[in-house]
Amino acid sequence: MMQHSPMWPGMLELAHTIPYDNAIVGDGSIPTDQLAAITVPTLAMYGGASPEWAQESVAATAAAIPGAQLRRFEGQEHNAAPELIAPTLIEFLLA
Fold first, then answer.
1. How many Å apart are CA 77 and CA 54, to the nearest integer?
2. How much is the pLDDT for 52?
3. Average confidence score pLDDT of the chain
4. What pTM was computed for the model?
5. Angstrom distance (rounded) from CA 27 to CA 40
6. Is pLDDT of 27 > 90?
7. The dihedral of CA 43, 47, 83, 11: what is its sign?
8. Which residues contact 70 (CB under 8 A, 6 or more apart)?
């Protein structure tokens, strides 16, 4: 199915970066010690219809950052609608 997607040519262009992505991700664990050192205001957002592993990763990341805010967009997937994200970002940035 992905090969028939209009995004496929762009994905092929980025394929050579996969080893770098894998090196950064490592074993896939959340680096809670490093995240605990973040001292700037942080907003973590996710779509409520995203895969469970993605939701859990965002929630764990937010939990590891002192004072981080967590926002869930019900019914949205990874590419949540901009009209939902924008007001949340504006509120966060102007607070």
1. 10
2. 94
3. 94
4. 0.76
5. 26
6. no
7. positive
8. 44, 45, 58, 59, 62, 63
